[in-house]
Design goal:
CATH superfamily of the largest domain: CbiD-like
Number of helices: 12
Largest sheet: 5 strands, mixed
Number of domains: 2
Radius of gyration: 25 Å
Strand order of the largest sheet: 4-5-6-9-7
Helix content: 25-40%
CATH topology of the largest domain: CbiD-like
Order of helices and strands: EHEEEEEEEHEHHEEHEHEHEHHHHHEE
Strand content: 15-25%
Shape: elongated
Structural class: alpha/beta
Number of strands: 16
Length: 375
């Protein structure tokens, strides 16, 4: 499950050290739950709480809503995502806390919290989209608060996100089969900007959902445009089969192998696919620029003379290389790259049986495709 924005970019998994971290929906829900318990036991409005998160101790949360209602207390806080591009930044996360006749802690999803409708997610079909990590965090927080007040009451916690249903449309939740709202996420409680770990965890979840729900192929795309173009090429594929992996193609291919996903399509443009053709499975620019020496050697094999090869090796971008070869009327660069990328990708992921690589222009024209099977 993920509250990652639906539109993603290939460079959004790289974090600068000076970016400000924020707090997850789970941390906000836990803070509101503590505030609700304090209000229930004291009979007073709570305006601020301090809680210990797995990822950070002594975190202060401002409680912007503390309302006594007939059966309990509704508390809310405004989510601060720091410098992470999370669609839930600035939204109110709420917890309605009430005493329960049954012992222990009951955690429920209220308005704006999604419900799982497909298998393969961290929660069972029919359950609210509150991940196991947040459930453990809230349960621990409640147990600690009850111990502090020397109480043995049963507690019911209903997490609500008033704007959750609207926000969910901007996330991957509808594709994953989570309806009616967002997910409550975050094991550590701390939201690190552009976290590699969270990005990869989301990719894994999407792959698992596609696998469990019977997708015969998955389509790994380098960004929103390459995903759009692949969707147009394969309109009969279910939406959940299309997964934007950004620069983490190698990670995604490895997970396909581990999940026994036998057939994969890779959709991208010449720059990143040229890196895959060299078996460079992490395609972010910080791991190296486009290799123009490599493209020059490919051009030489296609018939380019020494002068043109030298110009290619001094090119600015991979698109620039394409333009030079087009003007020289030397075809075949895109086909060579897709073939090499398909071979390298198939070799990289054990257990994969078949792979297809699609190379598009930035406008969506399909320039080359190559499908190969493992012998």
């Amino acid at each position: 499950m993920t509250n990652r924005p639906r539109k993603r970019h290939s460079n959004n998994s790289w974090r600068k050290p000076d970016l400000r971290h924020g707090y997850t929906t789970s941390a906000c829900a836990a803070a509101c739950t503590v505030a609700g318990l304090q209000a229930l036991t004291s009979g007073k409005v709570v305006k601020r709480v301090m809680i210990d998160l797995p990822g950070e101790k002594g975190v202060n949360f401002e409680i912007t809503r503390c309302e006594f209602q007939a059966k309990g207390v509704l508390c809310g806080t405004i989510k601060d995502s720091g410098d992470d591009p999370d669609v839930t930044h600035g939204t109110e996360i709420q917890s309605f806390v009430s005493w329960n006749d049954q012992p222990g802690v009951e955690i429920a999803g209220g308005v704006g919290v999604g419900t799982a409708t497909k298998p393969g997610l961290p929660v069972a079909v029919g359950e609210p989209a509150i991940n196991p990590g947040p459930r453990r965090l809230i349960t621990r927080i409640v147990a600690s608060a009850l111990a502090e007040y020397d109480l043995e009451n049963g507690v019911r916690v209903e997490i609500r996100v008033p704007d959750g249903e609207r926000l969910a449309k901007e996330t991957l939740n509808p594709r994953l089969g989570i309806v009616g709202g967002i997910s409550i996420l975050g094991t550590s409680g701390v939201l690190k900007p552009f976290s590699n770990a969270s990005y990869r965890a989301s990719i894994y979840t999407e792959l698992k959902v596609a696998k469990v729900n019977g997708a015969k192929w998955v389509v790994l795309t380098t960004g929103s445009r390459s995903e759009q173009y692949a969707m147009q090429l394969y309109p009969d594929f279910p939406e959940l089969a299309f997964i934007q992996v950004g620069d983490h193609m190698g990670y995604a291919l490895k997970q396909c192998g581990r999940l026994s996903i036998a057939r994969v399509v890779i959709s991208g443009m010449i720059g990143k696919l040229s890196k895959l053709a060299q078996s460079r499975m992490q395609t972010h620019v910080s791991e190296g620029e486009v290799d123009f020496e490599f493209l020059g050697e490919l051009a030489r094999k296609l018939g380019a003379d020494g002068g043109l090869v030298a110009k290619i090796q001094a090119a600015n971008t991979a698109h620039h290389v394409q333009s030079m070869l087009n003007r020289a009327e030397i075809p075949g660069l895109e086909s060579a790259i897709t073939t090499l990328a398909a071979e390298a990708s198939l070799n990289y992921a054990a257990g994969m049986k078949e792979i297809e690589v699609l190379l598009f222009t930035i406008r969506g024209d399909l320039l080359a495709r190559e499908k190969i099977e493992r012998n």
